[in-house]
Amino acid sequence: MTMMKRIAAAVVSTVLAASLAACSNGGGGTGGGAVGGGSLTVAAYSQPTLQANFNPFSPNALRGTMGLIYEQLFDFNTAGKFEFMPSLATKITWGDAGKALDVALDNRAKWADGTSLTADDVVFTFDYMKKHELLALPLTTATKTADGVRLQFSEPAYAIAQDIGRTAIVPAKIWESKDPDTDINAEPLGSGPYKLDRVTGQQASFKARKDYWKQRVTVGQINYVTTSSTNLLAQQLVRHEVDLAYAGIPDINQFVAKDPKKNHLWPVHASMKPLMLNLKRKPFQDVHVRKGLALALDREQIGKAYNPGVYAPVSPTGLYQEDWGDWIPEENRQPLAQDQQAALAEFAQAGYHKSGELLVGPDGKQLTLGVLTVSTFADGMAYATELVSQLTKIGIKATVVGAPAPGYTSRKNKGDYDAIYGDAFAFGSNPYNFYSSMLGAKSKLNTVGWNDPATETALATLAKASPEQQKEATLPLEKIMVDQMPVIPVLVKGTPYMWSTEHWTGWPDEKDPYTTPDPGAISGVYAAKLVLSLRPGK
Amino acid sequence: MAAQSKTAEPRTVAAPDQTPVRKGLRAVTGSVLAKRIGFYLVAGWAAITLNFLLPRLMPGDPASAVLLKMSELGPVSPQREAVIHRLFGGANSGPLWGQYVAYLGGLFRGDFGLSIAFYPTPVTEVVRSGFWWTVILVGTATVISFGIGTTLGVIAGWRPGRRFDSVASPLSIFIHSVPYFWIALIFVFVFAFKFGWLPLAGGAGRDVVPGFTAEFIGSAVQHAILPAATIVVTSISGWLIHMRNMMASVVNEDYVLLAQAKGLAPARVISGYAARNAILPSISGFAVSIGMVVGGSLLTEMVFNYPGLGSLLNQAILNLDYPLMQGLFLVISMTVLVINFIADSVYVLLDPRTREVS
Q: Which end of chain A is more exposed for a tag (fewer CB within 10 A), N or C?
């Protein structure tokens, strides 16, 4: 079985490499859909078929529901300097020690039917979500103010500002009578720059609104298309049938090399992928074993195991030093370097020593470690394989344990593993969600089962910290990460955004990271900012 | 395969017996049809029950699958997790027995529940969206490859060892052993990517709204050529080899020699005497593969991003979408049963020997 898979993978990558290498400027014009002129085509789905669903409260809402059709309140630019990004809201002001948020609304905002989007709609949306148990916020009341709404929370809400901002506002007059759990909202009416054109099963297309309240919309049509295989996606990208994509295609740099003037790759580092050890199993509850493992890894090399340049080594605090540099104390800013001597010294403190080529414990047995990962992700497997090979070099009997996604999840939830290299934790606009999901005693994503009073105290403090105090309040958590290594930070995960300037220019990049080039999977504010900034290419 | 051995050995025909006991027996065996129906009912129930059990043997739960996808995109707050568990946690909760009763009840009402992968779209609607894509594509391709493969097999088997046979047979064995997706990828690379003659992927132009319009049908046909061609190319060889071997053994039968000795035209001997007998096992094989059509060609649909049942099944499995898996498995297994039932019945018409027995 694995042999077959390996052969399959080899075949796929060979054909892919051949197709990238042999491609001759675009081929014929009988591609899947019309591109060029006034349309932007985005490979927004890795699934082969779509079902219409434009319900902004549904987890399965199609891309475009957020950002193109419905607008959210505000966001923070995590690709840049975390600056405030206005959308329906122009300004936010904290009050009552973080328990109240005044949101000033843009009074120009209008629904697609021409009526005004008012504070009543915003209040309705929050009440409606609360009533239907869809609100993932500790909101107590939402009330109208002179220039917008005031949101009152049961506890300081500084840390979840981004979640608040990503609430999509719906028109009260339409949603009053709708059930958010079961309505697919086939004919959405929103306030965003686009209206739904049609869904054909493999594509959802959106037409620009001539009367959008904020500005003129330059991209006439947006097509969000399905692409079920990375092999196919690579061919579509090279042929410029797709303008934007963000899936981990193999040998990604060939895409840029094919046409460096037009093809671009920008990895956005939004999450961290740690090596997580099962703290309920011996000997991983010993901090010296964890430190030994951390020092045995050459992060640079692991990052090169798949598409080089997409993933990057991360500081021992777990925060990415390039984006969060001023949040991290100087001494912890650099990623841990591989140091076999130091690693062996740590292992020695835990009773492990070298016996010939093997690292053996007090019981005379070699240290063994199975690293669980999702076998269907080619990239994840490649990183895990390289990581394991480095642990093997220091004398550990390390193996990759590949399991398909459902098996992976179930083994993870049951605690049936030595180590996991697969889960990533997103940074967000401040480190609270990052640390609380990873280390909080109550978090379901805290797979390793870290349960530490000092961590809980630090998290509680950070949750209540105002934006000015957040840096200070994050330091204790960073110290816990460095000193105790509840999880071992290895790499930041890059989402490889790929675009071509064949049809559109004005994309965000390292030099001008004004937004994440996201089609609305993460945030509608990002998506709207992107499509409203594009200009016809030449 | 059972059908094949049935016809391979000619049956001894019992002499008609007119005793009252025999008559009574014949009244019972006269209800062979009733027996058959009974058998298919039991098989149907077994299939329905397996449909229910199999997805539940998979590890994991739908809510975790949804959460895993969401955590890839951004931080998932504990409150958000609670919302997801409220929406999707119920799909696999409660005692198994209760779920089974609810499932059977739903079947009788034609209610398969709501899909999880496409929540809140009903399963029936999701299945319907993929059904015709698969049936038309794979169905047509199966019929074409059966037709071509069998015809070529007749030609090759009529004169085994001659020039055509010595090229066609080894070649088809070679093609038969090449993995399907490899041929598919090569086809895509050459005809769609390199030369750009045909579209890379999809069921129809992405812009085209499905419906009975010339534009849609034209586009769908254009998109179907490449996937259909790969199915035909890879499955032709199976029919060819099978037919060739049957034919090669039939041409030595006495009745074929007699027909030739009587001076009948070779074309008539081939079609009316040799091929007619040689094709019988292929017919039951054909029935099985027509039944399998609905199961879709998972690999074809994956390579070509085709919006059929295979793609849906793949999505259902990845999302641990039990209701959708149940719906798809049911459609697949029921089609196999129904087609087999029809084939069983039609067989009697094709093979005079089976008529004599009764």
A: N
